[in-house]
Amino acid sequence: MTSGPGLFSDIGKKAKDLLTRDYISDPKFSVSTSSVSGVTLTSTATKKGGLSSGDVGAVYKYKNTLIDVKFDTESNIATTLTFTDLVPSTKTVASFKLPDLKSGKVEVQYFHYHASLTSAVALSETPTVDVSATIGTPTFVIGAEAGYETSSGKITKYTAGISINKPDSCASIVLGDKGDSIRASYIHHLDALKKSGAVGEISRRFSTNENTFTVGGSYAIDSLTLVKAKLNNHGKLGALLQHEIIPKSLVTMSTELDTRALDRTPKFGLALALKP
User: Which residue ranges run through the membrane (predicted)?
Assistant: First the structure.
């Protein structure tokens, strides 16, 4: 792959990940193991609202092909096939879920030094087509995406975004929901490994005049322990503690509190991820 502006989905992703990644509200347990043949097996169990669910997955990589298969407790089988450089500078992703034969989708990503293009087509009788494109450099990116429904001949979505990236910071603006919403974010990293940083995000929905402003941050206490926190103008406060108990294996504890309704029980989450 060539270095370039990246995909449209990458615009604003760094700020979103700091504000949402690893925040959980339910117990979660996952175990991964790898074999000498290149197969990685993962088992995940989650308990939500008194109900338990889980899945078992296997990932196999051979040269430029990646095969990912998951089985869940509802007897669904999800398969994703990823092919890199079938055609130079491209990535092809085919996914489908059984027994839902209409869930299949094929996506082709093309990367260039100054542009990227993605096209995804649903494998159904009346397929939907999603197209996104970016132009620029790794430092400055402008892009757009659109969705088209062949059965009705209507545009289902269109979004535009711009991003400015530096080694220690990233700023982005995304106009989405057919022009009904706008989101601006800025993230600044405080260390070279990007384990500590601060982020601010403001979003507005024009149809409802609703504004949401969120600030958050992460701080690496040491090489094994990370804490994160976030707060928005609606009074939702979240906090997270993540510790590497053994190499590559993490325990994560998080909580969410509504500061405007302190009589409500806070939400707590616990996740344990064991990797070889």
Answer: none
* φ and ψ of 160, to 5 deg: -135, 150
Cβ 109 vs Cβ 93: under 8 Å? yes
| 3-state secondary structure (DSSP) of residue 221 | coil
**Tokens 């293009």 sit on residue:** 117
What confidence tens digit (pLDDT) does each residue in 170-228 have?
A: 999 999 999 999 999 999 998 877 789 999 999 999 999 999 999 999 999 998 999 99
Structure tokens at 231: 């707060």
pTM above 0.85, yes or no: yes
* Residue 132 near residue 150 (C-beta atoms within 8 A): no
pLDDT tens-digit map of 59-88: 998 889 999 999 988 888 999 999 998 889
What residue type is assigned to position 92 of the chain?
T
> CB under 8 Å to 57, separation ≥6 — which residues?
41, 42, 43, 44, 68, 69, 70, 71
Question: Who contacts 188 (Cβ-Cβ below 8 Å, separation ≥6)?
Answer: 168, 169, 197, 198, 199
Question: In this structure, what token pair is assigned to residue 16?
Answer: 């979103």
Delineate the domains of the chain, giving CATH numbers in brackets. Answer: 8-274 (2.40.160.10)
